[in-house]
What we know:
Helix 4 crosses helix 5. By secondary structure, the chain is of the alpha/beta class. Helices cover 33% and strands 28% of the residues. The chain has a six-stranded mixed β-sheet with strand order 6-7-8-3-9-10, sandwiched between helices. It is built from nine helices and twelve strands. It starts with a strand and ends with a strand.
Amino acid sequence: MLRADRLTLAVPGRTLCRELSLALQPGQCWCVLGRNGAGKTTLLHALAGLSSPAAGSVCLDDRPLDAFPRRDLAKKTGVLLQDDAQPFWGTVMEYVLLGRYPHRHGLARLHAEDEAAAKSALAAMGMGDAISRAFSTLSGGERQRVRLAALLAQSPELYLLDEPLQHLDLAHQVETLNVLRHLADQGKTVLAVLHETAWAGRFFDHALLLGEDWHEAGPAADILGAASLERLYRCPMEEVTTERGRYFIPRV
Length: 252
């Protein structure tokens, strides 16, 4: 379980939120919603141990994140950032195999199970035919699906994803959301920063709303509604209920 206790998140010259507490349990699928600049990415970095909150603490399995060796933390926690920090000039397969790094022993060569995990992850993201392509030749959406495949190959217990749907067309958004939902159904913990409110009530069972000077977290059925999203985005919203779930769209 990942637990955040009384977090204060800040950037230079600005406090984003105060006293934020959150408990992520196995089998839960969380979405994080908020306006630009609300602190969604800052929160994800704090939960991943990539940066320290201004106040408060984050623990994984009742241990502070900084008590974990980086390799051990990577076995438990997988992170999808908004952008790659460095260009990658290898093949798609070589990129996805980077996700297997936490499972390697020293400088040992990759094993057949690593290659099998990479191929399975690429197939899950519909990129199984692109194994030999240069990563640099992919479109934005294709790169995003390969980046997600690398995270699947890593096979952590906790998935923290910053805008996993960016660059994806509608069909691949649904494909990706089904993969995330399946991970949670298998007992993994998933938290995804989203801008696509239409999907929040359909695929996610828990939600965190990050507003200005307020936040609310809990079961999606309790806190997601047209009124709460209008307060969050300052935009008229409409709820559409179907036999497959609830969808929230701007009323314009």
